[in-house]
Design brief:
The structure is a single chain. The chain has 2 domains: about 120 residues, Phage tail protein beta-alpha-beta fold (3-Layer(bab) Sandwich), CATH 3.55.50; about 725 residues, TonB-dependent receptor, beta-barrel domain (Maltoporin, Chain A). Helix 3 runs antiparallel to helix 4. Strand 23 and strand 24 form a beta hairpin. Helices cover about 5% and strands about 50% of the residues. It has a 22-stranded antiparallel beta barrel. By secondary structure, it is mainly beta. The longest helix has 12 residues. It starts with 10 loop residues before the first helix and ends with a strand. About 50% of the residues are buried.
């Protein structure tokens, strides 16, 4: 006799489900006549799954069935309109449960592959309605996040299509707890989770492949990735520390950008599929939006599948918004000093914004015997863009954009994935990957005069980061009793980052003697990190979940760097003791490891639709190559200088959160759905690394007079990021709404030793010595005062606060988004409105100074977008998007203050999509 088994949908299976539901957009032709279910996996046939699906509309019941069973269900919700299901309760086998769910409905099913089933509606006379390529309501794809007892968010493909992204940062703007440091000219994406970003604090990955490319700019984005939104199927954001795959060296969270798979374009009995998309700005409202689109083509059957695709995106100069410009403050672009120039800047085009991005994707998968699968993936993105400064012409009282550099960036990703899933004890996955990102940058001259000694001619740089990675994990599951289950996920990951910069820069005359270690701000070096992890999860009777995890991370950091300074010689007593040039050389290999535990508990205190959870965990992040070894002029000239800190300590985080999930069906009307996720989070980071902009070098006698000389230091104060996240989602079929909001709490102080390497010196009197002294024509032996150098304990212990440049200087401002929409014409027409809002942080808007330039001026804003999507046929869709409908003047801040540019004004674009 088979023991009934409760199976709770797992995050990974739900993610697979989310991807598979999008497959309903493809044609699903099925034969007529007696439909027999192809045999699923034998163990799936035998096991019983506990279902709890109330009576409701059939399309919603089928989605609930897919969620609870883990089976991928392909169907057209429009063909099921008007049909109801009696619901499904109790423990049933997969096929028996589906048969009972469809009881009394003119719908047939067929299992075309293990874990995949397609539905068809049968009309009078036994004629089935063909299921062509169609749009499935993919707002359902992310429902599993409202049942997961942790802080996680998902951005689905349907949400992406509602507002076609021009910058990859647009993908995340509506997600609670997530920010993006945006430089509008740079297509690179830097993800901030709950105030934490940079240097691998957030694992930004594409299909699990870490994107660790880093080029130092103005300390707003130290680590960027390049992803083409056309190839993104969904984005999953896991917040906080993790004892699972991808958590090595992570203290902020994991941002996974999952690309399209062949199965997203195929389906049961469908061996050929594809998607063509072409978009363009419309008329004068196109506002610098030119052609952007893609072509994807897939072939597949039970043996394997192949996917190929190409994408192009072209953008140009645009007009910014002009309304409510008073929100920008009085100091932005010298508003009070030159009103005429301010108006010209506000009403003129934002220049040097032209960019071209081309991407390719290729995936080849083989289905091997005994539930094995092998897949090779390759995708490449090549993008060209410019850097520019806003410069005022004093004579004409106009601003213009001076191009200071141009960039050719190429990012290539290759991976080999293997999976084996023969039983509950073996769900094995392995990945070997290689990521290389190269930036070729031309830099304009620094505009200094040739006679100043500071002139640097135009030159080219190359920055390259190569990452090798290996991931191995297995998940074992046990059904202990009728209502108890145990899951153990364990494995290992390792990655190596190698930084290989080069430059043709010729140092200025004044640099040649004084600064022999100018390498630019990106040093050569290597970091290797390896991790072992295990996470044990226990579930009891659908109301209690407890999990505990432990990981061990170990890293090795190697690199060479140096500091040139001037020191008094020790042990020497002189009458006129002078400092001597001293080269401090660091050729290091550092190695360290640490254990990091996590723990979580979730309960349903009464109603089935409410879950309370809390989580606690520790994280550990060792310094990156750039933080420890960077040196040189950050801007190519001037007096600024960045020095290395090879003694930088690893960061340690303590994460705690308390949250609730709500998932209630048939709340206000039959078949509707309300979901909510609310969480309070508190992240404390010890030894937080920040760029101190006023450090003193060994040999100095006084401190606090070196503004512009910078090095990374560990904060002597605990750094905390606290706040509350809200995510609400209601869908009644014909109308829907979503709300997200992030409220950050508190602020931080950043304090460090002025002499970050120590070595403060002072001259003290050593008495007198007899020295020959010429007096007239005679030489006499006379007493002469002499000095010697000693350590200056007072200066070596001096601490200063507030000299910080970087995104952490100010807490991110509160931000939210509200979406309201309606569906017409049997839900083929979807129209809606979105409000994006931030109250701003108010810092430095009406006053400014060097020490505050880093926060990039975050004014408040309120931006409205409109969108519409109409499936004219099951295969053809027309989508329109009016962004910034009220022409608001605003920034999506946290970007590079010195490259600051307003966001686009009112912009209308269209997208035509064809699926086959």
């Amino acid at each position: 006799m088979t023991t009934p088994r409760q199976q709770t949908p797992r995050p990974l299976s739900r993610l697979a489900l989310a991807s598979s539901l999008a497959l309903g957009t493809c044609a699903l032709p099925m034969g007529i006549g007696q439909v027999q279910a192809a045999a699923p996996v034998e163990r799936a046939e035998r096991q019983l799954i506990r279902f709890d699906i109330p009576a409701q509309a059939l399309d919603r019941a089928v989605l609930a069935y897919a969620e609870q069973s883990g089976v991928q269900v392909f169907f057209d919700s429009r063909k099921l309109a008007g049909l109801n299901s009696p619901g499904l309760q109790g423990s049933h086998a997969i096929e028996d449960g589906l048969r009972r769910l469809l009881q009394g409905s003119p719908v047939r099913y067929r299992f075309s592959a293990p874990g995949q089933v397609g539905l068809e509606r049968v009309e009078a006379g036994e004629h089935s309605v063909e299921l062509g390529a169609t749009h499935v309501e993919s707002s359902r794809d992310g429902d599993w996040v409202y049942m997961a007892p942790r802080s996680v968010s998902v951005i689905t493909r349907a949400q992406i299509d509602q507002r076609p992204p021009r910058h990859a940062a647009d993908l995340l703007e509506q997600t609670a707890g997530v920010y993006t440091a945006v430089n509008q000219r740079d297509p690179g994406l830097s993800v901030n989770i709950r105030g934490v970003q940079d240097y691998g604090r957030v694992n930004m990955n594409i299909d699990g492949m870490r994107q660790n490319f880093s080029v130092n700019g103005h300390q707003q984005r130290n680590g960027v990735m390049f992803i083409d939104p056309e190839f993104v199927q969904n984005v999953e954001i896991d917040k906080g520390t993790s004892a699972g795959m991808g958590g090595a060296g992570v203290i902020g969270g994991i941002a996974s950008f999952n690309t399209v798979e062949a199965r997203d374009l195929l389906g049961p009995d469908k061996e050929i599929g594809g998607r063509l998309r072409a978009g363009h700005g419309i008329g004068e409202l196109g506002n610098g939006t030119y052609f952007n689109g893609s072509a994807l083509f897939a072939l597949g059957n039970e043996v394997g599948d192949i996917l190929v695709g190409h994408s192009e995106r072209h953008f140009g100069d645009y007009r910014s918004g002009t309304q409510h410009a008073g929100n920008l403050g009085t100091q932005m672009r010298g508003k009070l000093e030159d009103r005429q120039a301010w108006k010209h800047w506000l009403n003129g085009e934002v220049g040097a914004m032209d960019s071209v991005t081309r991407s390719q994707i290729f995936k080849l998968g083989l289905n091997l015997p005994d539930t094995q699968r092998l897949q090779f993936s390759y995708f490449e993105t090549d993008t060209d863009s410019k850097d520019a400064w806003t410069v005022k012409d004093a004579g004409s009282h106009e601003y213009y954009y001076r191009v200071t550099g141009s960039n050719d960036i190429n990012a290539r990703n290759a991976a080999l994935d293997y999976s084996l899933n023969p039983s509950d004890l073996v769900d094995f996955k392995a990945k070997l990957y290689y990521v290389t990102t190269r930036q070729d940058r031309w830099n304009a001259d620094n505009a200094a005069s040739a006679t100043s000694g500071n002139r640097v001619e135009g030159y080219s740089d190359r920055y390259q980061t190569d990452t090798w990675g290996l991931q191995v994990q297995n998940t074992s599951r046990w059904q202990l009793f009728k209502a108890d289950s145990l899951t153990f996920n364990y494995g290992s990951e390792m990655f190596q980052d190698r930084f290989r910069p080069s430059t043709e820069r010729v140092a200025a005359a004044n640099e040649t003697e004084s600064l022999p270690y100018v390498q630019g701000a990106n040093p050569t070096g290597k970091r290797v990190m390896a991790s072992l992890f295990g996470n044990l999860s226990y579930e009891h009777d659908d109301w209690l979940t407890v999990d505990a995890g432990l990981r061990y991370d170990r890293y090795r950091l190697t690199g060479k760097t140096g500091v040139t300074t001037w020191l008094y010689p020790e042990g020497i007593t002189e009458t006129n003791l002078r400092r001597q040039r001293t080269d401090l050389l660091f050729d290091q290999e550092r190695e360290e490891g640490r254990f990091s535990p996590t723990f979580g508990i979730a309960v349903k205190p009464g109603p089935d639709w409410l879950q309370l959870y809390t989580r606690w965990g520790r994280g550990w992040r060792p310094p990156a190559v750039t933080e420890a070894y960077m040196s040189g002029r950050p801007h190519g000239g001037g007096n600024e200088m960045v020095y290395p800190n090879p003694f930088l300590q690893a960061e340690q985080s303590h994460n705690w959160e308390l949250g609730l999930n709500i998932f209630k069906q048939s709340l206000l009307r039959d078949g509707d759905r309300f979901a909510a996720k609310v969480a309070y989070f508190d992240t404390r980071i010890d030894h937080f690394s920040f760029l101190d902009t006023n450090v003193s070098l060994p040999g100095s006698s006084v401190s606090g007079i070196a503004l512009g000389r910078s090095a990374y230091q560990n904060n002597l104060q605990a750094t905390r990021f606290r706040g509350v996240e809200y995510s609400l989602d209601y869908d009644a079929g014909d109308y829907y709404g979503q709300l997200s909001y992030t409220h950050m709490i508190g602020s931080n102080d950043f304090c460090s030793n002025q002499f970050y390497l120590g070595g403060a010196q002072q001259l003290v009197s050593a008495g007198t010595v007899l020295r020959p002294v010429r007096v007239g024509s005679r030489i006499l032996m006379l007493p002469v005062r002499v000095s010697r150098a000693e350590a200056n304990a007072t200066e070596n212990n001096r601490v200063s606060c507030g000299d910080i440049m970087g995104n952490a200087a100010y807490m991110p401002a509160d931000r939210g988004a509200l979406t309201l929409g309606m569906r017409f014409l049997e839900r083929t027409l979807d129209v809606g409105m979105r409000l994006r809002y931030s109250e701003g942080n108010g810092k430095n808007l009406d006053t400014h100074g060097y020490s505050q330039i880093d926060q990039a001026m975050w004014p408040k804003y309120k931006v409205y977008d409109l969108y519409a999507s109409y499936w004219m046929t099951p295969s053809l869709n027309l989508a329109l998007s009016l962004e910034n409908a009220t022409d608001e003047a605003y920034f999506v801040a946290m970007g590079d203050a010195n490259n600051l540019s307003l966001a686009r004004g009112r912009t209308l674009s269209g997208m035509l999509e064809y699926r086959f």
